[in-house]
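Table 4 source record.
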Amino acid sequence: MIRHWPAVEGDLAREYGITAPELARMSTRRFLALIGAMSDQSRFARAWRATPRRADSPEEIARITGIPAA
């Protein structure tokens, strides 16, 4: 999701009229509910569908997240 943050922020503004300061104060529950309810045509939804998400190994997860494997 971080990789597509400009799309997330833009879609929240476009679809719900949410500003960056409002987004910063938003609860995680509300954020996830709004993301989940975005239209299939939102920029984030299109980018998310095009992003491979399978990560089986700690090394792959570390590569994706930038957090070293333990």
